[in-house]
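Q: Fold this one first, please.
A: Sequence and structure below.
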Amino acid sequence: MDYSSKISVLNSEINHLNSVISEVSRHREELAHARYKLLNKKGDLVSDTRWIHNPENGHERSRGYISSEHDDARDSIERAYADTHKQVQEMIDAIDQERNRLSREIDHKRASIASRRNRITTLKAKQRILEQKG
Protein backbone atom coordinates (compact mmCIF):
# COMPACT_ATOMS: atom_id res chain seq x y z
CA MET A 1 0.00 0.00 0.00
CA ASP A 2 1.28 3.44 -0.93
CA TYR A 3 0.68 6.18 1.62
CA SER A 4 2.01 9.04 -0.51
CA SER A 5 -1.45 10.13 -1.71
CA LYS A 6 -2.74 10.31 1.87
CA ILE A 7 0.37 12.25 2.89
CA SER A 8 -0.16 14.62 -0.02
CA VAL A 9 -3.79 15.22 1.00
CA LEU A 10 -2.75 15.90 4.58
CA ASN A 11 -0.06 18.34 3.39
CA SER A 12 -2.67 20.15 1.30
CA GLU A 13 -4.96 20.37 4.32
CA ILE A 14 -2.09 21.76 6.39
CA ASN A 15 -1.39 24.40 3.74
CA HIS A 16 -5.06 25.38 3.69
CA LEU A 17 -5.19 25.59 7.50
CA ASN A 18 -2.06 27.75 7.51
CA SER A 19 -3.66 30.15 5.04
CA VAL A 20 -6.81 30.31 7.19
CA ILE A 21 -4.66 31.04 10.26
CA SER A 22 -2.91 33.85 8.38
CA GLU A 23 -6.22 35.41 7.36
CA VAL A 24 -7.72 35.08 10.86
CA SER A 25 -4.55 36.54 12.39
CA ARG A 26 -4.71 39.49 10.00
CA HIS A 27 -8.34 40.10 10.94
CA ARG A 28 -7.46 39.85 14.63
CA GLU A 29 -4.75 42.49 14.19
CA GLU A 30 -7.18 44.79 12.37
CA LEU A 31 -9.51 44.47 15.36
CA ALA A 32 -6.64 45.29 17.71
CA HIS A 33 -5.99 48.46 15.71
CA ALA A 34 -9.69 49.40 15.79
CA ARG A 35 -9.73 48.80 19.55
CA TYR A 36 -6.72 51.07 19.98
CA LYS A 37 -8.48 53.83 18.04
CA LEU A 38 -11.61 53.43 20.15
CA LEU A 39 -9.58 53.67 23.35
CA ASN A 40 -8.10 56.94 22.07
CA LYS A 41 -11.56 58.27 21.24
CA LYS A 42 -12.76 57.21 24.68
CA GLY A 43 -9.94 59.29 26.17
CA ASP A 44 -10.99 62.22 24.00
CA LEU A 45 -14.53 61.93 25.32
CA VAL A 46 -13.30 62.07 28.91
CA SER A 47 -11.22 65.14 28.06
CA ASP A 48 -14.16 66.79 26.29
CA THR A 49 -16.41 66.11 29.25
CA ARG A 50 -13.90 67.76 31.59
CA TRP A 51 -13.61 70.75 29.28
CA ILE A 52 -17.34 71.38 29.02
CA HIS A 53 -17.60 71.39 32.81
CA ASN A 54 -14.60 73.73 33.29
CA PRO A 55 -14.71 76.34 30.54
CA GLU A 56 -12.32 79.23 30.17
CA ASN A 57 -14.74 82.12 30.49
CA GLY A 58 -12.30 84.96 30.09
CA HIS A 59 -12.66 88.18 32.04
CA GLU A 60 -14.82 88.57 35.13
CA ARG A 61 -17.01 91.23 33.45
CA SER A 62 -18.11 88.89 30.66
CA ARG A 63 -18.68 85.83 32.80
CA GLY A 64 -22.45 86.17 33.12
CA TYR A 65 -23.15 86.27 29.40
CA ILE A 66 -20.47 83.72 28.42
CA SER A 67 -21.41 81.45 31.29
CA SER A 68 -25.04 81.44 30.21
CA GLU A 69 -24.01 80.76 26.60
CA HIS A 70 -21.72 78.00 27.81
CA ASP A 71 -24.49 76.40 29.89
CA ASP A 72 -26.63 76.09 26.76
CA ALA A 73 -23.76 74.59 24.77
CA ARG A 74 -22.85 72.25 27.63
CA ASP A 75 -26.41 70.99 27.95
CA SER A 76 -26.56 70.33 24.21
CA ILE A 77 -23.22 68.50 24.23
CA GLU A 78 -24.13 66.45 27.30
CA ARG A 79 -27.33 65.30 25.60
CA ALA A 80 -25.37 64.34 22.47
CA TYR A 81 -22.68 62.54 24.48
CA ALA A 82 -25.07 60.94 26.98
CA ASP A 83 -24.65 57.38 25.72
CA THR A 84 -21.48 57.79 23.66
CA HIS A 85 -19.14 56.64 26.44
CA LYS A 86 -21.27 53.55 27.02
CA GLN A 87 -21.49 52.83 23.28
CA VAL A 88 -17.73 53.10 22.84
CA GLN A 89 -17.20 50.70 25.76
CA GLU A 90 -19.70 48.27 24.24
CA MET A 91 -17.79 48.38 20.94
CA ILE A 92 -14.51 47.74 22.76
CA ASP A 93 -16.10 44.80 24.60
CA ALA A 94 -17.47 43.39 21.33
CA ILE A 95 -14.02 43.69 19.73
CA ASP A 96 -12.47 41.91 22.72
CA GLN A 97 -15.00 39.08 22.43
CA GLU A 98 -14.37 38.71 18.70
CA ARG A 99 -10.60 38.75 19.19
CA ASN A 100 -10.95 36.03 21.84
CA ARG A 101 -13.11 33.97 19.47
CA LEU A 102 -10.53 34.39 16.72
CA SER A 103 -7.74 33.36 19.12
CA ARG A 104 -9.66 30.18 19.95
CA GLU A 105 -10.15 29.53 16.23
CA ILE A 106 -6.41 29.96 15.62
CA ASP A 107 -5.63 27.58 18.50
CA HIS A 108 -8.07 25.02 17.08
CA LYS A 109 -6.52 25.28 13.61
CA ARG A 110 -3.02 24.86 15.07
CA ALA A 111 -4.15 21.76 16.95
CA SER A 112 -5.56 20.40 13.68
CA ILE A 113 -2.24 21.06 11.95
CA ALA A 114 -0.35 19.29 14.75
CA SER A 115 -2.70 16.31 14.45
CA ARG A 116 -2.20 16.13 10.69
CA ARG A 117 1.58 16.38 11.07
CA ASN A 118 1.49 13.50 13.55
CA ARG A 119 -0.59 11.50 11.08
CA ILE A 120 1.93 12.25 8.32
CA THR A 121 4.77 11.06 10.56
CA THR A 122 2.86 7.84 11.24
CA LEU A 123 2.12 7.29 7.56
CA LYS A 124 5.76 7.91 6.61
CA ALA A 125 6.86 5.37 9.21
CA LYS A 126 4.40 2.82 7.82
CA GLN A 127 5.62 3.57 4.31
CA ARG A 128 9.25 2.92 5.35
CA ILE A 129 8.27 -0.36 7.00
CA LEU A 130 6.48 -1.49 3.84
CA GLU A 131 9.47 -0.52 1.68
CA GLN A 132 11.83 -2.47 3.95
CA LYS A 133 9.63 -5.57 3.76
CA GLY A 134 9.07 -5.27 0.01
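Q: Good. Now the second chain.
A: Here it is, same layout.
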Amino acid sequence: MTDSSDRNPNDAGGLDLPAMFTRIFMSVTGACVLYGVWLAAIFSTVHGPPAPASLGLLLTAPIATAIGFALGTLLGERATRHRRSRFSDAMQWPLVGGIVGALMVLPFGRTLTIFGTFAVGTLAVAAREFWALRRDA
Protein backbone atom coordinates (compact mmCIF):
# COMPACT_ATOMS: atom_id res chain seq x y z
CA MET A 1 0.00 0.00 0.00
CA THR A 2 1.39 3.41 -0.91
CA ASP A 3 1.38 6.44 1.28
CA SER A 4 -0.47 9.46 -0.11
CA SER A 5 2.72 11.52 0.23
CA ASP A 6 4.43 9.19 -2.29
CA ARG A 7 1.95 10.07 -5.04
CA ASN A 8 2.87 12.49 -7.77
CA PRO A 9 0.56 15.56 -7.57
CA ASN A 10 0.44 15.61 -11.38
CA ASP A 11 -0.69 11.99 -11.51
CA ALA A 12 -4.40 11.68 -12.18
CA GLY A 13 -5.00 7.97 -11.97
CA GLY A 14 -2.10 7.05 -14.26
CA LEU A 15 -2.61 9.95 -16.65
CA ASP A 16 0.34 12.19 -17.41
CA LEU A 17 -1.59 15.47 -17.54
CA PRO A 18 1.35 17.85 -18.10
CA ALA A 19 2.47 15.82 -21.11
CA MET A 20 -1.09 15.68 -22.42
CA PHE A 21 -1.48 19.46 -22.14
CA THR A 22 1.91 19.92 -23.81
CA ARG A 23 0.79 17.82 -26.77
CA ILE A 24 -2.50 19.73 -27.01
CA PHE A 25 -0.67 23.08 -26.84
CA MET A 26 1.78 22.01 -29.55
CA SER A 27 -1.11 20.77 -31.67
CA VAL A 28 -2.93 24.11 -31.42
CA THR A 29 0.34 25.94 -32.16
CA GLY A 30 0.84 23.80 -35.27
CA ALA A 31 -2.71 24.59 -36.38
CA CYS A 32 -2.12 28.33 -35.91
CA VAL A 33 1.11 28.21 -37.91
CA LEU A 34 -0.37 26.24 -40.79
CA TYR A 35 -3.49 28.41 -40.83
CA GLY A 36 -1.17 31.43 -41.11
CA VAL A 37 0.63 29.78 -44.02
CA TRP A 38 -2.72 29.02 -45.67
CA LEU A 39 -3.87 32.61 -45.14
CA ALA A 40 -0.63 34.02 -46.57
CA ALA A 41 -0.98 31.76 -49.61
CA ILE A 42 -4.55 32.95 -50.15
CA PHE A 43 -3.62 36.63 -49.79
CA SER A 44 -0.67 36.23 -52.15
CA THR A 45 -2.99 35.00 -54.91
CA VAL A 46 -5.53 37.82 -54.54
CA HIS A 47 -4.95 40.77 -56.84
CA GLY A 48 -7.18 43.78 -56.43
CA PRO A 49 -10.04 44.23 -53.99
CA PRO A 50 -11.04 41.17 -52.00
CA ALA A 51 -13.81 39.12 -53.54
CA PRO A 52 -16.49 37.34 -51.50
CA ALA A 53 -15.10 34.12 -50.08
CA SER A 54 -16.23 31.02 -51.91
CA LEU A 55 -17.44 27.99 -50.04
CA GLY A 56 -14.72 25.83 -51.58
CA LEU A 57 -12.04 28.25 -50.46
CA LEU A 58 -13.42 28.38 -46.92
CA LEU A 59 -13.62 24.61 -46.61
CA THR A 60 -9.92 24.28 -47.46
CA ALA A 61 -9.08 26.15 -44.24
CA PRO A 62 -10.21 23.26 -41.98
CA ILE A 63 -8.07 20.88 -44.03
CA ALA A 64 -4.98 23.07 -43.73
CA THR A 65 -5.68 23.60 -40.05
CA ALA A 66 -6.15 19.86 -39.46
CA ILE A 67 -2.77 19.22 -41.06
CA GLY A 68 -1.32 21.74 -38.61
CA PHE A 69 -3.08 20.06 -35.69
CA ALA A 70 -1.67 16.70 -36.80
CA LEU A 71 1.89 17.98 -37.27
CA GLY A 72 1.74 19.68 -33.88
CA THR A 73 0.47 16.47 -32.31
CA LEU A 74 3.32 14.48 -33.82
CA LEU A 75 5.87 17.04 -32.63
CA GLY A 76 4.25 17.00 -29.19
CA GLU A 77 4.50 13.24 -29.02
CA ARG A 78 8.15 13.44 -29.96
CA ALA A 79 8.82 16.21 -27.40
CA THR A 80 7.12 14.32 -24.55
CA ARG A 81 8.63 10.97 -25.60
CA HIS A 82 5.19 9.49 -25.82
CA ARG A 83 3.65 7.08 -28.30
CA ARG A 84 4.42 7.49 -31.98
CA SER A 85 1.27 7.98 -34.03
CA ARG A 86 1.04 7.81 -37.78
CA PHE A 87 0.17 11.06 -39.52
CA SER A 88 -3.17 9.71 -40.73
CA ASP A 89 -4.13 8.70 -37.16
CA ALA A 90 -3.17 12.11 -35.80
CA MET A 91 -5.13 13.91 -38.51
CA GLN A 92 -8.47 12.07 -38.33
CA TRP A 93 -9.83 13.68 -35.17
CA PRO A 94 -8.95 17.32 -35.92
CA LEU A 95 -10.07 16.96 -39.55
CA VAL A 96 -13.52 15.76 -38.57
CA GLY A 97 -13.69 18.26 -35.71
CA GLY A 98 -12.56 21.15 -37.89
CA ILE A 99 -15.03 20.42 -40.67
CA VAL A 100 -17.90 19.93 -38.22
CA GLY A 101 -16.95 23.18 -36.45
CA ALA A 102 -16.78 25.10 -39.72
CA LEU A 103 -20.16 23.77 -40.83
CA MET A 104 -21.69 24.62 -37.44
CA VAL A 105 -20.87 28.32 -37.72
CA LEU A 106 -21.29 28.62 -41.50
CA PRO A 107 -24.91 29.85 -41.21
CA PHE A 108 -23.66 32.80 -39.14
CA GLY A 109 -21.17 33.95 -41.76
CA ARG A 110 -18.48 32.48 -43.94
CA THR A 111 -15.69 34.42 -42.31
CA LEU A 112 -16.54 32.90 -38.92
CA THR A 113 -15.77 29.34 -40.00
CA ILE A 114 -12.22 29.54 -38.68
CA PHE A 115 -13.51 30.06 -35.14
CA GLY A 116 -15.57 26.89 -35.37
CA THR A 117 -12.63 25.08 -36.93
CA PHE A 118 -10.30 26.00 -34.09
CA ALA A 119 -12.82 25.49 -31.29
CA VAL A 120 -14.12 22.07 -32.32
CA GLY A 121 -10.73 21.02 -33.73
CA THR A 122 -9.09 21.74 -30.37
CA LEU A 123 -11.84 19.81 -28.57
CA ALA A 124 -11.28 16.91 -30.97
CA VAL A 125 -7.53 16.92 -30.28
CA ALA A 126 -8.18 17.00 -26.52
CA ALA A 127 -10.66 14.12 -26.86
CA ARG A 128 -8.12 12.15 -28.89
CA GLU A 129 -5.43 12.71 -26.26
CA PHE A 130 -7.73 11.77 -23.41
CA TRP A 131 -8.96 8.68 -25.26
CA ALA A 132 -5.40 7.57 -26.05
CA LEU A 133 -4.17 8.12 -22.50
CA ARG A 134 -7.06 6.15 -21.05
CA ARG A 135 -6.45 3.38 -23.55
CA ASP A 136 -2.71 3.28 -22.83
CA ALA A 137 -3.10 3.42 -19.02
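Q: Anything worth noting on the second one?
A: The first helix runs from residue 17 to 45.
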